[in-house]
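Retro notes
What went well: the complex prediction finally ran end to end.
Inputs used:
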Amino acid sequence: MAAGLADAGRLLRSGEITATALLEEALGTASRTEAQLHAFLTIDSEGAREAAAQADADFADGVDFGPLHGIPVALKDNLCTRGLETTAGSQILAGYVPPYDATVVERLRHGGAVIVGKTNLDEFAMGSSTENSAYGPTYNPWDLSRVPGGSSGGSAAVVAAGSALLGLGSDTGGSIRQPASLCGVVGMKPTYGTVSRYGLIAFASSLDQIGPFTRTVEDSAIALSTIWGHDPLDSTSYAGKYPDPVAGLERGVDGLKVGIVTELSGEGFEPGVEAATGDMLGRLEKAGVQLVEVSLPTFEIALSAYYLIAPAEASSNLARFDGIRYGLRVEGPTTEELMARTRAEGFGPEVTRRILLGTYSLSAGYYDAFYGQAQRVRAAIQEDFARAYDLVDVLVSPTSPTVAFEAGARTSDPLAMYLSDICNIPANMAGHPAMTVPIGLDDSGLPIGFQVMAPPLGEQIMYQVAAEVERQAAFVIAPTAVQVAR
Amino acid sequence: MTWEPVIGIEVHVELMTASKMFCGCEVAHGGQPNTRVCPTCLGLPGALPVTNRAAIESIMSIGLALGCQISPRSVFHRKNYFYADLPKNYQISQFDVPVCHDGYLDIEVDGAARRVGIERAHMEEDTGKSIHIGLGGRIHAAERTLLDFNRSGVPLVEVVSRPDLRSAVEARAYAQELRSVIAELGVSDVRLEEGSIRFDANVSVRPEGSEQLGTKVEVKNMNSFRSLERAVGHEVERQTALLESGGSVVQETRHWDEESGVTHSMRVKEGSSDYRYFTEPDLVPLVMSPEWVAGLGARLPEMPAERRARYLSQGLAPSTAGVLSGLDPGLRAVYDDAVLSGASPQAAANWLTGEVVAWLRRSEADGPLTGLDGPNLAELIEMVDDGAVSSSAAKELLAGIMSGEGGPREIAERRDLLQVSDVGQLDGVIDSVLAENPDAVGEFRSGEEKVVGFLVGQIMKATGGKADPRLVNQLLREKMTG
Ligand SMILES: [Zn+2]
């Protein structure tokens, strides 16, 4: 098996493997692991085989669409794919087949990528364990009794298992980084506005951002180079100059200032996580970075503000699922009743909870105390970050306070579940890039992730540091609970 | 007690941009249902809006024409409510920072000028259309509802007046004047029957002299200026009667019923007042630079009120000025050119608002005027003034000009319509007619006026009808008196 997509790309171009063989290996892994993991909602073997055959024909003709050409890719099921069912993990979109491709999907197709299938997620990306999927949970490939994290748990598990070399997810409040951390892979959330949201089924528009799951830091940078860029179909898309995420990978970290976020340690953080984080900080210091402790006090209230803003936007974004034009319809005596019944039956409990929370926080009389106040907190978080980045080049922290938790452990306690993303949410609130790199296993053999955050459009320096973290950790992605290789 | 009506009008105008407000679908009327739709205007999962710059220019022009301030920065908000023909179940609209605010519109009622304040003009998107089938098309009894999203996402400008209107007649005058301003800008086809322009009225009454506003009622569903005037008039009467009988007005929305001539209370939608507005996160704020605003301001056409004032200053009667101002731009250009070519403004306006319009109506010609322009209208007027043609011949000439047969003099010569206005030539004819009627002079001098008519008739006969009758009359009297 190829070490990652960059490695596979070299093998494809040297003729050592074919795209078809690469795909069959991925499909084989999926067929061996799916019964245990349930990471896919749809596997499009037929479409993928056609795309792989086309890639092989292209290579034979000397046609090369770039680094993702012939690479097996899995897409979170909230990314619209023309002709391929897209459910967002919800009953309300059961059987929905979009008539168009999301911009990122179009970019992947133009790049010759082979789309293997659609991956499981918490319904409408609301959750941190992939247990809120209407189609059943996904399990962690390192320990089948544990969750893969979420909401993009399917893509994280697929990349960890090797059923695809690239997974795409969306990160509204940690939904890429936290599952990547729990599954021991690289996960990255780009600067807000750099990857088009067109065709991403919206959860919270001002926070959502699409990003890659990969097996290496280099793969992540390469994948980002393909999926990002200005898109006229997304008004919030960044139209200026984009950095080169790959350029700094081999540069090392000598002389860089790395900020340790003091708020992201201590109570609630598992000893194994703290130990691995401390060990990595020591290694980075030896590699030449200057470590600086930085306090960002607003991080303490970021979670509360997030749980006002994200549900508020979600309550409006999810209003369109009404049974009138597509998806589930539950008939009723009046149009209003039809809508109410469809939504009552179509949405799961967590989605319903957040819609109610959001509706409440936007209501007349409460707006300023809740949504308005949360927006002011958001501005304060940005100011906090700005002050920190005056002192340091990047900020680091654990990606998750804990390793993968037991399935079912937090499903009845929403607040405990919400705390899973405490390290991740500030970057979403500020619109900044952040990523996770696996750095080791705890005593029970579960992966631990290390988070690197950077200022807006600071992807190059972020990848530069992440690459050093990866070299220092020398982590091997070898999930123990599933048979991942022949 | 005397009651004073207080009325404000909300006007929705569909813009005539090439594409919709937030997607590339075409803006048009008619056609098969659901043929001008895409993921964005159908509210499909994942689709996003992109602001149409042409629509923003249109609303800025409307604002400038209404003397509004243009906000340097404006934001879109989501207005959240569930309705089957609203695909996203929220409407992208504006809330506290509209594109235009604080303007005015001058209207004239019974010769008196009134300035009506404009509170704001904001940008939003239109909804689709519900078609209720069965049981008389009533929504609550319909067997089924069909949805057409062709209109969904069409750019809509809402212009909100201040409560400055004091009668149904003023309300109508305001609506008509606003429609003519928007028509002048060419940003909408302002067709009432197509719903391109729609009016709602906020009506309340209060004791004359009171500064406090009464409870207001929103009246909807008026589809002509006449029904707007009737509906407002009815609502004022209804509220007045209610208050005089000791009752009180309920704040509500009422539906105008054109056939019965009354307003009905609409079912009050639960929670309809809380639209949970919040900033639209899918769109970035609009920035209207001073250069952009100034550029649009410089390109504004002359507004109807300015034009009427200019016509009055040229000496036109107020009624003519009003009618001329309402003519299409091509005809008004002919007027301006004719006046520049030396024609009397009133004569040029009379021709255009009378004969020209009548001819166009008869010939149903909608297109450009084939032969009529300012210089040849001026020449025609001059020929009539000089007596070179009779007024009936002039009408024939006009038809010839408009049919593209040439200039007035050319046509008059070709059709032999010129009158004999040569004094020397007429002298001889008059002398010989007088010689043939020796008693006539005596009768005239003894006060027999009717003999003049007889003699003129004889002279016209002798010239084959081509003499200028006014000139003949004048010369004849001079000879008989002298
Ligand atoms: Zn459209």
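What we learned: The first helix of chain A runs from residue 5 to 14.
What to try next: split runs per interface for comparison.
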